Amino acid sequence: MVGAAEERRRTFEHEALPHLDAVFRMAVRLAGDQALAEDLAQETMLKAYRSWHQYRRGTNVRAWLLTILRHTFINAYRKARKAGPTVDVSEIEQFRVFHDLQDSDPEGSFFSQIVDDEVLRAIDALPDEFRETLVLSDVEQLSYAEIAQVTGVPIGTVKSRLFRARQALQQRLYDYAVEMGYIKRPSP
Amino acid sequence: MKSPRKIDCREAAERLYDFLDRELTPDLEAEIRAHLDECAKCFSLARFEDAYLSFLHARTRAHRAPEHLRRRVFERLFLDGGTSDSD
Question: Which residues in chain B are closer than 8 Å to A108, comparing Cβ atoms?
Answer without folding.
Answer: 48, 51-52, 55
